[in-house]
Amino acid sequence: MDRSSAVIALVRRHGLIVAFLIFIVLVSANSPTFLTVGNFLDVIRQTSITGMIALGVTFVVITGRFDLSVGSMLTLLTVVVVDQHNAVGPGLALLFVLVGGMVLGAVNGLLIGFIGLNALIVTLAMLSFLQGLTLLYSGGANVNIADAQSWFALFGRGTVYNIPVPVLIFLASAAAASFLLRKTIFGRTVYAVGGNEVATRFSGINSRWTIFLAYVLSGLATAGAAIIMGSRVMGAQNTIGQGYELTVLAGVVLGGTSLIGGSGSIWRTVLGIIMLGFIQNGLLLLGYPYYVQWLVTWFVIIAAVWIDLGAKRGRLFA
Amino acid sequence: MTARPQDAPVLEIRGICKTFPGVRALDEVSFNVGKGEVHAIVGENGAGKSTLMKVLAGLHAPDGGKLVYNGQEQSFTSPLDARLKGILLVHQELSLSPELSVAENIYLGAWPTNRVGVLRKKKLHEDARAALQALGSDINPMTRVGELSIARQQMVEIARAQAFNANVVIFDEPTASLADTEKAQLFKTILELKERGRSILYISHKMDEIFAITDRITVLRDGKYQGTETTAETDIDKITRMMIGRDLDAYFHRAKSAPGAEVLRVEKMCSSDFSDVSLSVHAGEVLGLYGLIGAGRSEVAESLFGMRQIRSGTLYWHGEETPFPKPRQAIEMGISLVPESRKEQGLVLGMNGRENTTLPHLSAYAQAGVMVHSREMQTYREYVDLLDIRTSGPDQLVATLSGGNQQKFVLAKWLCGHPKLIILDEPTRGIDIGSKSAIHKFIAGLAEQGLAVIVISSEMPEILGVSHRVAVMSEGKIVAEFTGADQTEENLIAAVSERRNVEAPEEGSAERPPVDARAVMGGQG
Ligand SMILES: Nc1ncnc2c1ncn2[C@@H]1O[C@H](COP(=O)(O)OP(=O)(O)OP(=O)(O)O)[C@@H](O)[C@H]1O
Ligand SMILES: [Mg+2]
């Protein structure tokens, strides 16, 4: 029992990375473009949107909770940023979206942290609510940014010394998030709440605030992603964020952050998201259609959750 | 008590080794367990007792050595495997599934099914009831385990021994959370098991229990085997010397300070768990709160700390009327609570000792919201030294610490904020005798520095030994208060049993050592 749990722990720590490296070797043997700098930057650029969201979701997951509303939140916020860009200009549009993301996160946080409702249900309901709200807002039409020369294009399309701006935004945000999680009082309470909420309350920490703030961060991060998305597409459709909630979750768990809560880190999430990006990119280069990525998401989530549980109970099977 | 013949061992432990990252938990441990023997395993916190028992019960695979069971070399692949072969571990920390019923828990992993795999509920319940009845317990096998008290949960674990017809039953600190009557019941059960030729391994830090019920005593120290003594031919001093390598300065330390100004007073505090509780505690004073388990003492403590809703009552803090605080305010006022259950209320098991220690006082270890690592480390080191906590380093998760060392981190966590009033709910639960007297000395030291201290304990010698004044609780009420010469064992027993109408266990029985023995046993209570 002890030995098998040691093996599980090893798989949990390094196994996915090993499997990933094997995948890389296989793909690069079959596709000459896979291991090129250009492709690498491409992958990172593509992952910056899921990555941004995942930064916020990591906080929520470490508190031992979920946020399944980020996909449709991404849609709504992207539609809003594009539409408001046309209406009030890029500066105010950015402000609206950042505040809007935090407000939506705060609604989740209130219901889950302060009222104590189940996170899965609350955010799933929010997912549906925001889908409806998006259509209500847009009237079902796609929107595009009228002024193609707007500086707003910088966030999704710009480069600095050949490095895509979205990548820079993602990495800078990751550094900030990592600092917040590892070095601050708030970060410490996030781990504590996820590890043992009762003991945390016995330590005089208001776990409700911690949970609330984690959801606010999740909303803020999603707003950041919406800005990159809107800027990259210079427009928005009503389904643009569909399915992102699970892709993001797959990236978080692929990095090894436990869905049970209490452990995990930002660098793990960054690693997980980038690995996931390479897997999807590799599959595309191998000639599989893009929707194969949903199958991959399934596989990654099941594998990661299974290994997590296996490590906790010391064996893989019930 | 007679030692059983050692020539027919049921279990031979031969050179067992087990290493965890950073610690050699077991180093070539060898000894035998005889048939029909009650065999104590003693040692300091972190000596390797629980680890050894987990190896025997199939939870850990040893790195070296072998187990000979009934004359055959054995290796157990899982706890269920060990259980089916007749070795059963009753855990230090209870390990039942709260959502399952009593019967389902007893037979966990071996539920009776019919040919197509459907659970035979009726048989399950009947078997479970039979197992419980054999132990003299009236627990309904259909109850959800989460609804049972800790003592009753433990009964359920013991019923497993009965149900699986276990040959070797291992108890890891079984009495840590039992009330006296329940303890007496447990000892009766153990002796019955022994009569039927079962072998019992018994881990405890309570020497009175060990000398009352065991035949032989094996001592571990730092993972190494120190020897096995026949209980009837040895004494506490010898065993302690083997355990800690020196003599124990084992007397209770009562603070020498005279009580000063009043720190806290509550009047007519009521809640759903207790009523009309009035008490006060002064600077430099240790107030003991005695009572049986379930009397409402922990509830009072948690209420003073703001973890529970109060219905009515008044609180005076340093003489001024103050609203009942929330936990955060309580901490800021200078109230600390070392809670009853270290695993549920005391610690975040997935964090290390440093993070647990500073958790209630994060802002004191931060600058503009950013944690200052060096400040945290300073406190961590200070308290690891002060309380003699054994860890493999500041990064060791408290989940992997021994039970007693976990408890010490709970103490560290609540002492490092320099409180004015500290409430200690069973502060020495699971703590070895050497550290126990260190903690008693420490409590006395706190009072001498001017702190007000409330100690809750179910161990009478501990309460009597450390307190200036003892309040007795029973069924949610404070029924008596004793100081000075009135503060005696007889008075406490009388106060408790008067209300409960329960027969006090007779003098000298296992759970209440006679008065003179107390002086000898000192620290271990
Ligand atoms: N899973 C683990 N990982 C790492 N170290 C461990 C693990 N389990 C136990 N240890 C270490 O092994 C040593 C022995 O621990 P063990 O729990 O056996 O002590 P013990 O004698 O039962 O102490 P106590 O009286 O406090 O319960 C300790 O130093 C402990 O920190
Ligand atoms: Mg132990």
Automatic annotation (TrEMBL), chain A:
Keyword Transmembrane helix listed: yes
A Pfam family the protein falls into: BPD_transp_2
Topology in the lipid bilayer: Multi-pass membrane protein
Domain of life assignment: Bacteria
Primary location recorded for the protein, binned into one broad class: membrane
Residues annotated as transmembrane: 16-41, 53-80, 92-112, 119-140, 160-181, 211-231, 243-262, 294-311
Subcellular location: Cell membrane
This protein's record includes keyword Cell membrane: yes
Keywords: Cell membrane, Membrane, Transmembrane, Transmembrane helix
Protein name, UniProt field: ABC transporter permease
Organism ancestry: Bacteria, Pseudomonadati, Pseudomonadota, Alphaproteobacteria, Hyphomicrobiales
From TrEMBL, chain B:
Highest rank taxon of the organism: Bacteria
SMART domains tied to this protein: AAA (SM00382)
Keyword Membrane: yes
Keyword set includes Cell division: no
The ABC transporter domain, residue ranges: 11-247, 258-500
Alphabetical keyword list: ATP-binding, Cell membrane, Membrane, Nucleotide-binding, Repeat, Sugar transport, Translocase, Transport
CDD domains: ABC_Carb_Monos_I (cd03216), ABC_Carb_Monos_II (cd03215)
Biased composition range(s): Basic and acidic residues: 499-515
GO MF terms, alphabetically ordered: ATP binding
Residues covered by region (Disordered): 499-525
Family, per entry: Belongs to the ABC transporter superfamily.
Protein name: Sugar ABC transporter ATP-binding protein
Organism listed in the record: Pseudohoeflea coraliihabitans
Taxonomic lineage of the native organism: Bacteria, Pseudomonadati, Pseudomonadota, Alphaproteobacteria, Hyphomicrobiales
